[in-house]
Amino acid sequence: MHTLPAKGERSNKKNFPIPTLSKELMAVTDADRLDAMGAIGIARAFTY
Length: 48
Known about the structure:
Layout: H1 12-15, H2 23-47
């Protein structure tokens, strides 16, 4: 069985670079995430 190291034990910059996203792509990603949450999820988010 293989295990992955804890998040604090590895460097994202070194091993897994995080790509920079354009503003347009970030907006589309946010819209996709909201769509995936559905109406119930969005209503729950507003209650917090």
